[in-house]
Amino acid sequence: MTAAPPVPEADACSRCAESSGTCCTLSPGNEEYCFPLSGRERADMQAAGAGPGSFCAQANTQAFLDNICRLFPGEAAKIQALFPAGGEHDRLAVSPEGACLLLGPSGCILPRAARPLYCRLFPFWIRAGRQMYFEFKDCQALRESRGGAGLLKRLGMTEPGVFDLYHRLREAWGLSERS
Ligand code: SF4
Ligand code: SF4
Asked: Looking at the domain assignment, is residue 54 inside a domain?
């Protein structure tokens, strides 16, 4: 696999990589729950050095669909049209231990701007038009902060930036904005 050289990070994610599995590792057997990657995201990653082995095809299983539907409540019909039963989508490839193949000892080896939008947004999300974050016990930034403002700071993010990433993710995944 061709990959970009490691990019030093001075934020919580690099401390996370040194102390825990980070959000870049899943439990083996849960690969189908990994978020989908759009062609645009793959192209940005490849331009930054991610090789073809960084991605793999994943069947649109019911468990995958249920998980995406939970992320976008009330949008099940759109999601089922985007990810039809019997079809497949691309996701990040992971090691037998569940680690993303782009995870280095100090965090993601891709520059932040070239990472998948979901990676850049996590642990933040938008629900009913409001910013929220997922409680993930292994998140170093969450452990170091006491909520939204501290979390944003530790991840080098801003609230407008979170909204912008969320809307870009929706567009990349083919989800039109809700009226
Ligand atoms: S692409 Fe980078 S940020 Fe996303 S899961 Fe892989 S290592 Fe983590
Ligand atoms: S977002 Fe949280 S869980 Fe993910 S790498 Fe950064 S500190 Fe770790």
From this structure: yes
Ligand 2 nearest-atom number relative to CA 107: 5
> Is there an atom of ligand 2 within 6 Å of 119 CB?
no
User: What is the domain count for the chain?
Assistant: 1
Q: pLDDT tens for residues 84-111?
A: 999 999 999 999 999 999 999 888 999 9
Is 179 domain-assigned? no
The response to whether residue 121 sits with its C-beta less than 6 Å from ligand 2 reads: no
> What global pTM score does this model have?
0.90
List the single range of 95-104, 125-134, 135-144 with lowest mean pLDDT: 135-144
For atom 3 of ligand 2, the residue with the nearest CA is 139
3-class SS letters over the chain = CCCCCCCCCCCHHHHHHHHCCCCCECCCCCHHHCCCECHHHHHHHHHCCCCHHHEEEEECCHHHHHHHHHHCCCCHHHHHHHCCCCCEEEEECECCCCEECCEECCEECCCHHHCCHHHHHCCEEEECCEEEECCCCCCHHHHHCCCHHHHHHHCCCCHHHHHHHHHHHHHHHCCCCCC
Cα of 141 from ligand 2 centre, angstroms: 6
Residue 151 lies in a domain: yes
64: domain range? 12-173
Q: Is residue 3 part of a domain?
A: no
